[in-house]
Amino acid sequence: MAGNILITNIKSLMQTEDNPRLKVCGKEMASVKTIDDAWLFLENGLISDFGSMDEIRNGNRSFTSTSIKEIDATGSFVFPSFCDSHTHIVYAGSRENEFADKIKGLTYEEIAGRGGGILNSAKLLHETSEDELFRQSSVRINEIIQQGTGAVEIKSGYGLNTEDELKMLKVIRRIKESFPLEVKATFLGAHAVPEEYKHRHESYVDKVINEMIPVVASNELTDYIDVFCDKGFFTVEDAERILMAGLKYGLIPKIHANELDYSGGVQVGVKYNALSVDHLERSGDEEIKILVGSDTMPTLLPGSALFLGLPDPPVRRMIEAGLPVALASDYNPGSSPSGNMKLIMSLGCIRLKMLPEEVINAVTINSAYAMGISESHGSIARGKVANVFITKQMPSFTFFPYAFGSDLIKTVILNGRIIN
Ligand code: NIG
Ligand code: FE
């Protein structure tokens, strides 16, 4: 059982909620509730209570539980752990050769067209055993835990045949069982069309529907279903067929949409009540209008936009239209080989012109919503899971995304246990 931890003298306790919300929309994104000079009490793996140090100093608050470990956080900030709602962190090998090709001028689509890209990762994954895939992925999981992530969504999609998709999903399940962070799995059989189906695209979609979805769903290996609905990958019609097949098994959609073109992915995502539509670099008034009033979380992935040199999505217009926005890392070997959510916050500020408060909401409560866990994660609220991190000493919370290359995380606590 987790011990009890009392963190005292916190310079500022970030993202506190007395009445927890599921997500934060529009103008509200520019505010984050904080308590200066605060304490936070973690009990049995959950957030028990929090308040101002004056209460302790005045003798109005004392702690009677046995074996309380006290951490003095003078000069430091405490944040709820990041929720990274979009990753492909389970993969074999790496693709730095394509990085060099990209530097020389090839586009993502050109590399994919030559059998590189996702198909390259699928080949490597096919040749890698389940144990080795778990070992390689564990290194990256440990890395993101150190970088402050307390919940991660992980997609399949480098298998592209039933056996290898199952191998990936089993590795995701092992990660869920072996690490202290919260894990959600997403089945992404429709990530790319394998070489042997190149001229029989429809048959691959049939295989996803008739062979993969039933076995993945009946083994309870996935929480969500995703389709790469974009130019050169899967069409809106493919997506509709796949999502309908998934819904029969109760699989809620999350869509890769509008990264490479105005793909119709946002529309199909909203039509099938997707939890999130992700990427959205190619979005205009039409896409924004459709998202307004829906329950779908627009999720932006500025790491892959930076890496691939894509245009930036119209975030300011989205927020002005009253939409919520989440940010995630897209950690994958081809378009975003990093899961550093602090860097993602900085990119949100620098590239997308989001305010520090907006990016905090986007990487905590809104990204928790985008992976279906905002009732238990994504803010400092009584009864939520005790996933938090303590920063090094900093002058202000704006310093955190501002100092974009500095490691400012000192202590990581997951489920009420100190990890480092
Ligand atoms: O989200 N867009 C599709 N999938 C990934 C890239 C995967 C890869 O290139 O390996 C993405 O960017
Ligand atoms: Fe992705």
How would you portray this structure in words?
This protein is α/β, with parallel strands linked by helices. The chain folds into two domains: 118 residues, Urease, subunit C, domain 1 (Roll); 288 residues, Metal-dependent hydrolases (TIM Barrel, Alpha-Beta Barrel), CATH 3.20.20. 35% of the residues lie in helices and 21% in strands. It has 16 helices and 16 strands. Helix 5 crosses helix 6 and helix 13 runs antiparallel to helix 14. The radius of gyration is 21 Å and the shape is globular. The chain starts with a strand and ends with a strand. The mean pLDDT is 96. The structure holds N-(iminomethyl)-L-glutamic acid (NIG) and fe (iii) ion (FE).
Q: What is the element layout, followed by pairings?
A:
Elements: E1 4-14, E2 34-43, E3 46-52, H1 53-57, E4 68-72, E5 77-80, E6 82-84, H2 96-103, H3 108-113, H4 117-126, H5 130-146, E7 149-155, H6 162-178, E8 182-190, H7 201-218, E9 224-229, H8 236-247, E10 252-257, H9 265-271, E11 276-279, H10 285-291, E12 297-300, H11 302-308, H12 315-320, E13 326-327, H13 341-350, H14 356-363, H15 365-370, E14 388-391, H16 399-402, E15 409-414, E16 417-418
Parallel strand pairs: 1-4, 1-5, 6-7, 7-8, 8-9, 9-10, 10-11, 11-12, 12-13
Antiparallel strand pairs: 1-2, 2-3, 5-14, 14-15, 15-16
Helix pairs in contact: 5-6, 6-7, 7-8, 13-14
